[in-house]
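re: ur question from yesterday

yeah so i grabbed the chain u mentioned. its 67 aa long if i counted rite. heres the sequnce exactly as i have it in my notes:
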Amino acid sequence: MAKYKLKTKSSAKRRFSMTSTGKIKRKKANLRHILTKHNRNSKRALRKGGLVDKADAPNIRRMLPYG
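ran it thru and got these structure tokens back, copy pasting raw so excuse formatting
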């Protein structure tokens, strides 16, 4: 039996969530301010979520030890 629990990074638990297949979901960037220079279609595409790249996934899994 483990003697201690691992801590979850608070910043990571706000930014990422897991899918049922184990992939990591994220929100796309560049949708906070100064949106007049973006056209309508690019802003709509940014509203959809994205998945974390396979190369970055191990680091994020380390920050989220319990999923």
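noticed a couple things. The chain has one domain: 10-63. also The CA atoms of residues 21 and 67 lie 12 Å apart.
anyway ttyl
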